[in-house]
Structure prediction request, 331 residues.
Amino acid sequence: MVILVTGGTGYIGSHTVVELIKNNYDVVIIDNLSNSSKDVVNKIEKITGSKCKFYEADIRDENALDKIFKENKIDAVIHFAGYKAVGESVKKPLDYYDNNVVGTIKLLETMKKYNCKKMVFSSSATVYGNPKVHKFDETIERGKAVNPYGATKIVIEEMLENLYVSDDTFEISILRYFNPVGAHESGIIGENPNGVPNNLMPYIQKVAKGELPELSIFGSDYNTKDGTGVRDYIHVVDLAKGHIKALEKLDNKKVYTYNLGTGKGYSVLDLVKTFEKVNNIKIKYKFVDRRPGDLDCYYADTSKAEKELGWKAEKGIEEMCKDSWNFAKNM
Ligand code: NAD
Ligand code: WQD
Prediction:
């Protein structure tokens, strides 16, 4: 089976490509390298010993998509390509709608044209908005977006559901990730964002490397065990494996939606202390005000993915911290 992976040189995409190759899929990547580098293609080859086809192109470029679908008999698409920085989305909402929503429309139009009807889509726990409970399960309705980035994920989820109603030969799985962290055990690929990171683990990595002086912990007065925010961190390799399961389960009975998390919540301080312990490094931190828009505590109910996909995250927070540093220290 030939799988087109959009955004395949990115953080989650690259780890998923490795798992796809390990599972004997043929992989074609399209990435415009707006947030990754071409080097990753060689790194994937180094890990797997296999080559994958790479197209440096934008998913909004219909001609480029046409060329890819003409040159390859694509059986299914795993769609990661998009912008993901919450703060930036507030400053540049139109760019986010254009890249994430318009990009997905162009991709779906081309898929239709070439009768490729299978898609696994990268969504996010952010689509739940701010529900009253901490444990999010898939029966909770999509909420109100807390930022333009989240709004694009809500729009795309709705669009995919509308598309299926109009054409029930589509086979679609929507995966809602919680907080992906960690890196491939080889230390060859991982998360390396440009500039000052927004997310917690990349920020910790930079403090550990001495590239940033200290971590600011946003809020110490949340109603959580130690006052800091609680999230469901999931190892990126577990997440990648979830995509293979979702791909294998695709059928046209309905649009499937699954949470991908561990089901466990850890606080910011849990993550910092674990990172310090397993890597034997001190992380300097200070407490600052809460970050606007942050929720106090949430984590996934993973029972649906466990039951229907036969998938369960296996790696714990210690492995996440170890692998993150194993990658970051060599960068
Ligand atoms: P990433 O930025 O590392 O990867 C995205 C890749 O897509 C990058 O390589 C980028 O160059 C590419 N890209 C962006 N726009 C493109 C376009 N128009 N055409 C072609 N390529 C394009 O991000 P990631 O963390 O790997 O996230 C992948 C997906 O998962 C995104 O859709 C993101 O919204 C979603 N997601 C991520 C997280 C997270 O915390 N990392 C959480 C939930 C959902
Ligand atoms: C985690 C915790 C912060 C940075 C975001 C998106 C979400 C999804 C995953 C894409 C929170 C605290 C962070 C720092 C800190 N992405 N923190 N100091 O906000 O849970 O989720 O990424 O879909 O949509 O919103 O992740 O890593 O930014 O924050 O104290 O410098 O760490 O307050 O409690 P978040 P995060």
